[in-house]
Write a structure and sequence with these properties.
Number of strands of chain B: 13
Number of helices of chain A: 0
Largest sheet of chain B: 7 strands, mixed
Structural class of chain A: mainly beta
Distance between the termini of chain B: 40 Å
Oligomer: heterodimer
Shape of chain B: globular
Order of helices and strands of chain A: EEEEEEEEEEE
Number of helices of chain B: 0
Strand content of chain A: over 45%
Radius of gyration of chain A: 13 Å
Chain lengths: ~110, ~120
């Protein structure tokens, strides 16, 4: 199985400041079609996970442009350019290259 | 608009069985791999099983092998998960999820809103 490792596991951010979450996979998620098979999800308290970024760097419809995904192969980053109060929750990276596996989650709180 | 609507969850005793269903719409169901993902209380999500578009290949996470069976009916645009020999560790919200690629290319995946399965006496 592909192991996904996120860091940090928790993050306290001042509104308006940037934030960054790292995700590393134990195998490359880059396929010959050029796609990196990695998604980012946000789970807000009491809600189902919602898709933020798919296939490495594509922002899902309706997701604010302050969210961006980057990286390739085994190292990926989710960046929030200016954190807002509504961004609190747990962020998961998820590989969909093989049998899907998830990172441990990063809990984001507001200072 | 892609929609995935799960049903069939509920309270079941340890050792019991339950069958989950997922009704799909808004895309050509028979073109995509389909998945079940679950999330236990206060835990992260866990992939459970998937099935090839034509149903010829099925894969499971180790903890459910031999107990759970994934199936699909492409004529009814429906996905199923038969769960037997349930234990408390199977308590979770179960999500139906679409795969990413068809013959035309790859795009985003989709999840349903989930159905809660509670295993308790």
């Amino acid at each position: 199985d592909i192991v996904m490792t996120q860091s940090p596991l928790s993050l306290a951010v001042t509104p308006g400041e940037p934030a960054s979450i790292s995700c590393r996979s134990s195998q490359s998620l880059l396929r010959s079609d050029g796609h990196n098979y990695l998604d980012w999800y946000l789970q807000k308290p009491g809600q189902s996970p919602q898709l933020l970024i798919y296939l490495g760097s594509n922002r899902a419809s309706g997701v604010p442009d302050r969210f961006s995904g980057s990286g390739s192969g085994t190292d990926f980053t989710l960046k929030i350019s200016r954190v807002e109060a509504e961004d609190v929750g747990v962020y998961y990276c998820m590989q969909v290259q093989q049998a899907w596996t998830f990172g441990q989650g990063t809990k984001v709180e507001i200072k | 608009e892609v929609q995935l609507v799960e049903s069939g969850g509920g309270l079941v005793q340890p050792g019991g069985s339950l069958r989950l269903s997922c009704a799909a719409s808004g895309f050509t169901f028979g073109d995509y791999w389909m998945n079940w993902v679950r999330q236990a209380p206060e835990k992260g999500p866990e992939w459970v099983a998937n099935i090839k578009p034509d149903g010829s290949e099925k894969y499971y996470v180790g903890s459910v092998k031999g107990r759970f069976t994934i199936s699909r009916d492409n004529a009814k645009d429906s996905l199923y998960l038969q769960m037997n020999s349930l234990t408390a560790e199977d308590t979770a919200v179960y999500y139906c999820a679409r795969g990413y690629c068809n013959t035309a290319g790859c795009s985003r995946g989709y999840w349903g809103q989930g159905t809660l399965v509670t295993v308790s006496s």
